[in-house]
Design a protein that fits this description.
Shape: globular
CATH superfamily: Winged helix-like DNA-binding domain superfamily/Winged helix DNA-binding domain
Mean pLDDT: 92
Structural class: alpha+beta
CATH topology: Arc Repressor Mutant, subunit A
Number of strands: 3
Low-confidence stretches: none
Helix content: 55-70%
Order of helices and strands: HHEHHEEHH
Number of domains: 1
Strand order of the largest sheet: 1-3-2
Largest sheet: 3 strands, antiparallel
Amino acid sequence: MREVAALFKSLGDENRLRIFMMLAERPMCVCEINAVLNVALSTISAHLKNLKYARLIEDSKEGRWVVYRLAENDFALSILELLKTKLADDEVFKSDIQKVRKISREDLVC
């Protein structure tokens, strides 16, 4: 029960929801997430910590970057499918995904 409550609480914040949906598109580092959200790095780090605590995302070190990706969690993946359907026409979601597809960590100053 606590795990489910933590999951929904985590996704109850708009920026965390946006991060979750961006990571559904592809793994990303903090500077790539920042390029889309344009909020303080400390805020992004706090959101990532929250999503990680809820077991929605995982991280790994790749060279000089810590890369975040969706967790291999059946419940989270089921929620993702529902969210993709519900957000398909959302302008913020569509804009975020377009930006995610264009940015590359190699082109950013991280």
